């Protein structure tokens, strides 16, 4: 575990106080009581699965970089990163993407903005986020948006939706800067699934509206708890969203994010309507071709 127990202050100078406290506790304890699954996996250098690589040309793929970070590829050739904190404690030791069309950022906290600025500079990707955060990140190509907005990236139609969370960017002596509301994204992929990345959020009533309006088939939901919903909340979210597949995220990176995919499975089984929902558990660095529906 030693490798992982680096001080988060060193890794992330702008960590919010609460996270720093838990991260420092992590460093002091060295071994957390329950080792989070994602952290255990972080020591491995996971290669993309053969399935993901061989089918990438025709299907929609998702690579999980740990925490809330994903890279999605679409049948029409779009490569889209979401909340790319690619240096998170669970992240695989893979080369960072060299080509990206767009980077979606749900909100201003460091664990979601992550490597956005450097990736945007390197790849020329358009940064799509709240109007306020877009100006704070300052990428050459960016699209400041808000809830209700829609933007197209090749064969992906991206809708900006609600999230129930706070937003703040950086943390100097005067505290974080206002970075607009926290957001979620629905990504409709032509000849592919409709994905919903919830960002950081608790379960909220508007998830029923997201289901009614956009019909997502796959939801990337936070399950860690503490800063977001826990597995029980995510199970209720899956029911409201009427999705067939849930990809759990935002767990295991720090001890405070204690929810697990097994707890999500157990919570889903408790409700008849959700018992058939598939939990697609990715390992950090793993690429999977996503089901069409
Ligand atoms: Zn977060």
Give keywords.
293 residues; seven-stranded mixed beta sheet; Metallo-beta-lactamase, Chain A; binds zinc ion; 10 helices; 26% helix; alpha/beta
Can you describe this structure?
This protein has one domain (2-284): Metallo-beta-lactamase, Chain A (4-Layer Sandwich). The strands form 3 sheets. It has a 7-stranded mixed sheet. A 7-stranded mixed sheet has the order 7-8-11-12-13-14-15, covered by helices on one side. A two-stranded antiparallel ribbon has the order 9-10. Helix 9 crosses helix 10 (261-269). It has helices at residues 8-11, 17-29, 37-42, 50-54, 110-113, 116-123, 131-137, 206-214, 231-241, 261-269; strands at residues 61-64, 70-73, 79-82, 102-104, 126-130, 142-145, 150-153, 156-162, 168-172, 175-178, 183-189, 194-197, 218-222, 245-249, 278-279, 287-289. The chain has 293 residues and is α/β, with parallel strands linked by helices. Strand 12 (194-197), helix 8 and strand 13 form a beta-alpha-beta unit. Residues 68, 109, 111-112, 200, 227, 250 line the site of zinc ion.
């Amino acid at each position: 575990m030693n490798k992982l127990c680096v001080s988060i202050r060193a890794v992330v100078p702008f960590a919010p106080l609460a996270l720093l406290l838990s991260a420092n506790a992590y460093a002091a304890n060295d071994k957390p009581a329950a080792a989070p699954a994602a952290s255990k996996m972080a020591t491995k250098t996971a290669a993309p699965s053969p399935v993901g690589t061989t089918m990438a040309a025709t299907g929609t793929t998702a690579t999980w970089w740990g925490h809330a970070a994903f890279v999605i590829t679409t049948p029409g050739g779009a490569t889209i990163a979401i909340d790319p904190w690619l240096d998170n404690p669970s992240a695989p030791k893979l080369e960072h993407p060299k080509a990206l069309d767009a980077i979606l950022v749900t909100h201003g906290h460091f664990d979601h903005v992550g490597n956005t600025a450097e990736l945007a500079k390197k790849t020329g990707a358009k940064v799509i986020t709240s109007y306020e955060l877009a100006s704070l990140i300052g990428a050459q190509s960016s699209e400041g948006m808000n809830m209700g907005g829609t933007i197209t990236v090749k064969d992906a139609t991206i809708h900006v939706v609600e999230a129930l969370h706070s937003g703040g960017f950086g943390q100097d002596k005067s505290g974080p800067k206002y970075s607009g509301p926290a957001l979620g994204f629905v990504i409709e992929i032509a000849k592919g699934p409709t994905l919903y990345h919830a960002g950081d959020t608790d379960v909220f009533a508007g998830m029923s509206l997201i289901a009614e309006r956009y019909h997502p088939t796959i939801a990337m939901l936070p399950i860690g708890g503490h800063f977001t919903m826990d597995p029980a909340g995510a199970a209720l979210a899956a029911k409201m969203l009427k999705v067939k597949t849930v990809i759990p995220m935002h767990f295991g990176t720090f001890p405070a994010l204690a929810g697990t995919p097994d707890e999500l499975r157990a919570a889903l089984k408790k409700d008849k309507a959700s018992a058939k929902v598939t939990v697609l558990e990715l390992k950090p660095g793993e690429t999977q071709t996503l089901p069409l529906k």
